[in-house]
TrEMBL record:
Organism: Ramlibacter rhizophilus
Catalytic activity entry: 2-dehydro-3-deoxy-6-phospho-D-gluconate = D-glyceraldehyde 3-phosphate + pyruvate
Associated pathway: Carbohydrate acid metabolism; 2-dehydro-3-deoxy-D-gluconate degradation; D-glyceraldehyde 3-phosphate and pyruvate from 2-dehydro-3-deoxy-D-gluconate: step 2/2
Gene: eda
Matches recorded under Pfam families: Aldolase
GO MF: 2-dehydro-3-deoxy-phosphogluconate aldolase activity
Name of this chain's protein: 2-dehydro-3-deoxy-phosphogluconate aldolase
Enzyme nomenclature, EC number: 4.1.2.14
Amino acid sequence: MAMTNPPALLSPSAVMRDAPVIPVIVLDEVRHAVPLARALVEGGIRMLEVTLRTPVALQCIEAIANEVPGAVAGAGTVRSTAEAQACVRAGAKFAVSPGYTTAVGRACRDLGLPLLPGVATGSEIMAAAEDGYTELKFFPAMQAGGVAMLKAWAGPFIDTRFCPTGGVNAANAREFLALPNVLCVGGSWLTPAEAVRAGEWARITALAREAVGLRGG
């Protein structure tokens, strides 16, 4: 039986509109989760996508959710109903998936968990839209056509908005953000692995502030 939660306070659109960049976070040690989240929040980035790519990811989400009031802990790389359920138990307030299936979409809706489904083709956009999802992650953005693909989609998918992720960085983010069908971008450049390992939280705060300045600049 699907788990149910009260209706989500967030919508996918609200997640995407909060800041120009959603950081894609990979954490190998739980001890880094809270100081990293605090550094990002101090720089103006609240929506934090912690990917389920490491064994400690759920523990990191739980730590951020419990100890960093200004942060909105989210889960990335969500690929199944079971993972969506585990993320909610850990305290995640939104989810991001690398692709889309109806099972994952329905599970997140039953859980009251806002979902940004991953798409790379027109057929996937249509499948997600049939299930009510029109705010989507375009992944892998650069490999799947980049800015040119998003421009091509603007006509047939006029009611769809995207968060391009995958190959997006500080050098090309503005080009994506200038598109009318892009609400934000996702990227890992806000949390360089070497900076996290070294505890260079001031550097991460500075990167977050730069990212906030991308909108309208």
